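Form 7-S
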Amino acid sequence: MNTSIDLYAHRGFSGRYPENTMIAFEEARKMRVSGIELDVQLTKDGEIVVIHDERIDRTTNGMGYVQEFSYKQLRLFDAGSWYDSRFSKQSIPTLIEVFEWMMDKKTEMTVNIELKNDQIYYPKLEEKVLRLIDEFDLEDQVILSSFNYDSLAKVRSLHSYISTGFLFEGVSEDAIGKAKSIGAHLHCDMSFALSSYGKKAKQEGLDLRVYTINELNDFLKLQQASVKVVMTDYPNRFSSTMFKG
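Output:
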């Protein structure tokens, strides 16, 4: 049994702070998690920004698609009040800001960057993200994940060893083959991790990084199943369990 699970804060400490904001990442760091997970998209002027939805409506006081705004415009929107008025000064961060924060804090956390390109095609997103990772010399602290298999295949063609994760839902019969074909690990939900396919994936040397687990009973089941990573909105709920921190 793997009693030492890597705990990743999903969109930062998003259970208690507005998701994908700098305060959510900082509060996750204070919890001594192994990593954080975040999502990236491109603005109209090609800036890499950290936001989950293709539209800004749910998590800001604006309306419209991320790709319709320049970053200067996006920066003006309030990205915290939707969660609580205490966070009204939070804005949509850039990936550069996140990397600068990592440098400033000298953190060794892993950053799982989900490329949000399965609904909208962002030209050169992979190249831009990889270039920034190289500039900050963070190849060994980053995982790139996506639901878009072709995007991950492109990442692998551009970078021979950076860690990648093939995202999928449910119990997929072909996930193992797809992941192995591009040298990726599996980012799956609990149903796959606890299935016979999940067991087979581990036997074939693939890490299982499981999203999004918020209940202790589920965490304990995954601990018994020896998964590599559990992603959660509430890292505080598992602070008394055994995991790398």
